[in-house]
């Protein structure tokens, strides 16, 4: 009994320390993340290490609530297109995974208390059996804010790999468009965005038809 109690206390202490560390990172990010021009200078000054510096800056900046479109456009501004696409996509996926992990392993209770009643069960039902497609749709058609998706899905039974894969695949159209805009190709960014919307419609129609078919057959 004593060992079990001690083990449970140890887990609670560990989670508290992780939560405190996460809160400290968020506060630091909010207070110290520089503006867009300063971020650009830091990445450019890093030389060959620029993509790695950009990746770290991206994740920290997302916690500081810096808009992702600005960070994606920054990749185009610094690295050009298509070279800026890979670090921009990697930054988006890493930031999403960081917030997903925070909700699942660190601040799950705090996040859950802020969600409307029953939303966790609805998210579980949404991702059950087709997690990748669910994430893909949420990314392609961002009706739900990016960070809300990250934290919310961290509370579900969803696996890490479907979440990461759906985030990566769904981020391609919008991220490519913004990197193009950042690199000076604003005219090309519009067709890419339109293609992403059309892809969303196709996936949504296919999912709806599949669900309707399953409901008719009782499957």
TrEMBL record:
Q: What Pfam families does this protein map onto? A: VTT_dom (PF09335)
Keywords, comma-separated and alphabetical = Cell membrane, Membrane, Transmembrane, Transmembrane helix
User: What is the topology of this protein in the membrane according to its UniProt annotation?
Assistant: Multi-pass membrane protein
Please give the organism: Nocardiopsis tropica
Question: Which chain positions lie within coiled-coil regions?
Answer: none
- Give the family, as the similarity comment puts it: Belongs to the TVP38/TMEM64 family.
Tree of life domain: Bacteria
Recorded protein name is: TVP38/TMEM64 family membrane protein
Name the residues that span the membrane: 16-34, 46-66, 78-102, 160-181, 188-209
The compartments listed are: Cell membrane
The VTT domain, residue ranges: 66-183
Q: Which PANTHER family match?
A: GOLGI APPARATUS MEMBRANE PROTEIN TVP38-RELATED (PTHR12677)
């Amino acid at each position: 009994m004593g060992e079990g109690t001690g083990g449970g206390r140890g887990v609670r202490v560990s989670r508290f320390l992780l939560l405190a560390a996460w809160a400290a990172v968020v506060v630091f990010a909010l207070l110290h993340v520089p503006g867009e021009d300063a971020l650009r200078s830091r990445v450019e000054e890093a030389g060959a290490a620029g993509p790695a510096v950009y990746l770290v800056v991206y994740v920290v900046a997302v916690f500081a609530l810096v808009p992702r479109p600005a960070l994606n456009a920054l990749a185009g501004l610094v690295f050009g297109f298509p070279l800026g696409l890979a670090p921009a996509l990697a930054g988006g996926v890493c930031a999403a995974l960081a917030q997903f992990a925070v909700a699942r392993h660190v601040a799950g209770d705090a996040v859950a208390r802020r969600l409307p009643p029953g939303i966790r069960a609805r998210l579980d039902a949404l991702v059950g059996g087709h997690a990748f497609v669910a994430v893909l749709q949420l990314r392609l058609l961002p009706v739900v804010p990016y960070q809300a998706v990250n934290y919310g899905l961290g509370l579900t039974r969803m696996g890490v790999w479907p979440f990461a894969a759906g985030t990566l695949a769904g981020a391609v159209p919008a991220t490519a468009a913004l990197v193009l805009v950042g690199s000076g190709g604003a005219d090309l960014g519009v067709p890419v965005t339109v293609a992403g919307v059309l892809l969303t419609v196709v996936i949504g129609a296919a999912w709806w038809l599949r669900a309707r078919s399953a409901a008719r057959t009782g499957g």
